[in-house]
Amino acid sequence: MSLSKGIWSTFNRRSPSLALRNKKLQKALLSPNLPEGPFSLKKRSSKIRYISPTGMDEIYPLAYQFLEKQSADVYKKIENMEKKCNVEQSDELKRTLTKLQVEAEENNPEVVYNAMFGSNLVDRTQPVYRHYLEQKWKDYGRMLIMQRLESLAVIPDTLPTLEPQVEVKMKFPCNNVERWIEPGDILSSNVTSRPPMLEVIEFEECKRGLYTVLVVDPDSPDVENDSYSTTLHWGLKNVELSNQDGIIDARKLVKNPDCEFASYLAPTPEKNTGKHRFSVWIFRQKKEIDGFREPVGRERFDIRKFTADNELHAVGAHVWRSIWDRNVNNVRKMYGMGEGRVFAREKV
Amino acid sequence: MFNSFKASAFGRFTRQFRLSFVREAHKKAGGSKTHMQDSAGKRLGPKKHEGQEVKRGQIIMRQRGTNWYPGTNVGIGKDHTLFALEPGYVRYYLDPFHPKRKFIGIVLGKEDRLPYEHFAATHRRLGRRVIKNTVASQREEEYMSRKEQLIMPDIMKEKQARDQKRAGKVAKFQNDLPKFVGDLSTEELAIAAQRMNAIDGFMRGGKSLEDGRFYATYNYNYETDLSCRARKEISEAELESRKQEYAELAKKVDDKVMLDARFQLCKYLDAQQREERKKQDIEQLKTLIPDANKPVDKRVREKAMELIDDSCFSLSEQIHLKRRFLKPVLPESEELLGDDKTKHAIVISRMNYDTRRVDTIYRKKEGFLK
Amino acid sequence: MFSRSKAGLNPEAQKVVTQLSVMSAGRKMPKMLKLCNEDYIKHKTIMKAWSVKRKQEKEAEERSIKKQYRSIREAFEDLKLASPKLFEKANEHEYGKRFPLEMRIPTEYPPRQIWYYDYVPRKRND
Known about the structure:
Chain C: One of its GO terms (cellular component) is mitochondrion. Chain C: Its main location: mitochondrion. Chain C: InterPro entries: Ribosomal_mL40, Ribosomal_mL40_fung. Chain C: It comes from Eeniella nana. The complex is a heterotrimer of chains A (348), B (370) and C (126). Chain A is of the alpha+beta class. Chain A contains 10 helices and 9 strands. In chain A, the strands form 2 sheets. Chain A has a 6-stranded mixed sheet with strand order 2-9-8-4-5-7. In chain A, strands 1-3-6 form a 3-stranded antiparallel sheet. In chain A, strand 4 and strand 5 form a beta hairpin. In chain A, helix 3 runs antiparallel to helix 4 (91-105), helix 4 crosses helix 6 and helix 5 (109-117) packs parallel to helix 6 (127-151). Chain B has 4 domains: 45-107, CATH 2.40.50.100; 153-267; 271-325, no CATH class; 334-367, no CATH class. In chain B, the strands form 4 sheets. A 4-stranded antiparallel sheet of chain B has the order 1-3-6-5, with no helix packed on it. A 4-stranded mixed sheet of chain B has the order 2-7-8-4, with no helix packed on it. In chain B, a hairpin with a 5-residue loop joins strand 5 (74-76) and strand 6 (82-84). In chain B, helix 7 (271-288) runs antiparallel to helix 8. The N and C termini of chain B lie far apart (105 Å). The radius of gyration of chain C is 29 Å and the shape is flat. Chain A binds chain B through residues 153, 156-158, 160-161, 173-174, 176-178, 194, 218, 221-223, 226-228, 250-251, 254, 263, 271-273, 334-337, 341-345, 347-348, and chain B through 56, 118-131, 137-138, 140-141, 143, 201-202, 205-207, 211, 214-215, 218-219, 222-223, 226, 229-232.
């Protein structure tokens, strides 16, 4: 027996990912009360002790059917919109359509459950799940990355500013570090000795987008000018990403070796040069990049000029910091870089 | 007489610094003891003026409170003294982002203005020199802070233990691998043992077997790539041949051997074989333990454990099976309950919420797995 | 001259006051809902449905008021065209009648005082 008799129980037009996959959980959510007890509580003692709020079983069906009816109305609007979209294609219409698609499903209890408690596993092709993911990101992740970029002065030291549109996550699985790096973390040279894995979460619809990735260090010492210069540590172009697959990892790069235009150079800060900020920039490409007008050099890399020349639009960023440690010399040997310079401890 | 002198001498100042003489009105009549307490001037005020050249650490302003705020390349002391952090030229300026504050900053170039353009990269000075003397540079590189010095022996000890453990593991793999894979030369065996060790590490780190294998291969190839392209130790042709050899060896080993849920070497099973084995084992378990709510004897329990520990199951599946077939505590059925005369009974006190009394329950030993 | 409010209380009374204040603090703060995930979603659904319903009612009310206002306006426009004299008469300023007292924002319940029987408009001073 299920509460839903309308649009939320039919799946000929709706994606099956909008339903709960677990049948017992679905039954609990689609009945007025909890027929088999609270499924989400794991401990037996808490299951026994749990009592649902009084009166919920009477009101919940009413609320569910009311919202379901609203959703059905929105679906009618969507149908009209889709017909219009077939006749003429404009961004405005598409945006309204996505908005309606979100509106139709955002109150569906099953969708809300998936979005709240299964956040990373949701089907990102569905606008409603992307909407919830974006909401979550705006509440914390976006503020965090902007705070780190500003207080570490990654903006404006690398690029003037950033309007983040995608969430960027990073970890170093090649070195067995299976933890998402928080922006601004100080990592040891051992952890960063092999390239990271990035995850780019798009919140707009994206079936096949091309992206460029740059990792730069704006803190390389420039002794001649008594200043600092920027070094390019990793450069990827034409990386194909979509809503379902936003991962840039070793597997993808092994399959498409042409993506890498500047191979990964592990961070090896020299002694007494302070903390180096390694900023990861994600750019959306307008078109495929075949080659570069000028050869890309690592030393004295001008990221602003590079982005302007190639019409790159920054959509996301990440940052980690590295500092000289006792393993740096091993990493330098691994990359055939020779001994690093040693700077004086005191500033002059 | 005193008053008239004061009026003539300080009249001009009274008008300018009205605030500092406000206390005058509250002053008690002449002759009081508190009247004569006046401290010496604190020599506050600017020490360096607009455009003046300064060295690092020179004081620019002494003040009470932050009348002036530290701007670019300027630091602030505990008594709000402003001082130069970089050598350069002093600038007194206003910042539109903080409309109520006045700033003092240092620019590096003589003609520069403050504030710098908002979106431009910040002008920074390195201010450090490279130690050219090899002895001095080595000494500097080896320098340790006291904290580091104190902790270093422990770190080295841990590292040694870790290395030893790793070497032991590799040796064990080297010893065990021939049982599963025949015809491996000594060199191949060494590489294969290293590979198994890497996979073991990745799996302990939370990766699946497939991911572990992929990353072990990837890391080997990455290392070989570096030795060819970065270190120039081997030629391009040799690089290709080495990669090829490794891929062949990896395939040979992977087809024969894998790591089970407890990271032990076992015979490789592909997905289909694994499914079949799982089905068989569960069937056997069902025949062995038809009712999980009945106590089992030791022999049956050991047999069941053996079946559950089979390499086709993942760790979580093993735990699930254990919970399903070998319950740690059986339900309180009639034959498992005893009374106060039962030998080796396990006594449980439990609150009975209906009678609001604490019940004493005697359970037979068979009701528990251990 | 200065007196602290609680300084004069004897210890027993102070104890009672403290205990009572603790109890009332609990009443001021709504109890946190301890719900399992399913019930939490159900709770959210109910709250959402209620807010949607309220919003729809509010919008319907606003629409009807707007409609009323529009028809009044249209009627006046018609009157203005049909007979400017009558229109002026209808809009004429009446002495003492500033805002019709009997006109109020429509509410769901009658006012506490239904009618001001001794209502006299205030006289202008000039």
